[in-house]
Amino acid sequence: MSSAPRRSPPPRPPRMKKDESFLGKLGGTLARKKKAREVSDLQEEGRHAINAPMSPASADVHPEDTLLEENEERTMIDPMSKDDPKFKELVKVLIDWINDVLVEERIIVKQLEEDLYDGQVLQKLLEKLAGCKLNVAEVTQSEVGQKQKLQTVLDAVQGLLRPHGWPLRWAVGSIHGKNLVAILHLLVSLAMHFRAPIRLPEHVSVQVVVVRKREGLLHSSHVTEELTTTTEMMMGRFERDAFDTLFDHAPDKLSVVKKSLITFVNKHLNKLNLEVTELETQFADGVYLILLMGLLEDYFVPLHHFYLTPDSFDQKVHNVAFAFELMLDGGLKTPKARPEDVVNLDLKSTLRVLYNLFTKYKNLD
């Protein structure tokens, strides 16, 4: 009987090279940990600068936001400001406005910083609003080309706004750097200058965190940026009246004024079996204003002059503007309101229009 074959001994593991030794591996691990710790420390330094005293909340700091050169400065919006409902409303209103203006260009803006920084959308927006054509390349991929286009666009904006005394709170670097505050300042100014048919939320402010590197250390400060004021100031109507005082200092009397105006308009609209219960909403499409003027001046308004059942913003604006023309024909002064303000349910503007009618026709049977 033959014996079982011998098994060959298992091969020895190869001798580890020097850098694969335990100490070598340990050294590599320590080096990686040290590098990771340095990055972590750098990020932590940036977070500490952001979270310095006076900061209302910790900012979401990305690593690139803390890697600054000496004396370099970077700004960002405090996260609490971004969560403010009025700030979110402002951003949404501006995005919707841009998309409405550029609907024929098939341009859809979803995020202001990402979609406007290269100047392409801003070029199309300005050309559409101003009815002009800018001498710029249609498509620019390089950073230099984008900044050149931005410079041309912003120069054109400056030519429009500067003669009217608008403060320019933006620059090529800030827009191209996706600085949302600068982009919002620019868009709000354009909307006001071109009297956009939108309702900007009033008194929108943001806390801006400013980070600067000095002597190798990051220092932060907080600045309040005012993005919008009141509708009257933004639209250039600086003269205050009794309604400004009423809203600011005697809001408790507002219900009394509204009740008096409702009684006045219903006294006449009831002749057509119509009744008003909400001033800010029921006059917003202009129909009741037109019918009221016909009743006050004792004439019939031909239906082909206005939209009896308006179903779009433009049709409602047309109706209110037509009502304003009837008021001028009746000897009233130009209303201290825009048709767009009334359509956008601005109560103060609607009250001003109705109060003008009340003042002239209150004794009319």
Task: Name the descriptors.
365 residues; mainly alpha; three-stranded antiparallel β-sheet; 17 helices; 3 strands; elongated; disordered N terminus
In short:
By secondary structure, the protein is mainly α.
How would you describe this protein?
There is one protein chain. By secondary structure, this protein is mainly alpha-helical. Helices cover 52% and strands 7% of the residues. It is built from 17 helices and 3 strands. Strands 1-2-3 form a 3-stranded antiparallel beta sheet. Strand 2 and strand 3 form a beta hairpin. Helix 12 (254-269) packs across helix 17 (347-361). The chain is elongated. It starts with 21 loop residues before the first helix and ends with a helix. Residues 1-5, 16-26 and 45-64 have low confidence and may be disordered.
Main sheet properties:
3 strands, antiparallel
Annotation field: number of helices: 17
Which stretches of 5+ consecutive residues score pLDDT under 50?
A: 1-5, 16-26, 45-64
> Structural class, judged by helices and strands?
mainly alpha
Can you write the helix and strand succession as a string? HHEHHHHHHHEEHHHHHHHH
Measured between the Cα atoms of the first and last residue, the distance is: 136 Å
Cα gyration radius (Å)? 32 Å
Overall shape: it is elongated
How are the SSEs placed, and which strands pair?
Layout: H1 22-50, H2 63-66, E1 73-77, H3 79-82, H4 85-101, H5 112-116, H6 120-130, H7 143-161, H8 172-176, H9 180-193, E2 205-214, E3 217-226, H10 231-234, H11 242-249, H12 254-269, H13 279-282, H14 287-297, H15 313-329, H16 339-343, H17 347-361
Antiparallel strand pairs: 1-2, 2-3
Helix pairs in contact: 6-7, 12-17, 14-15
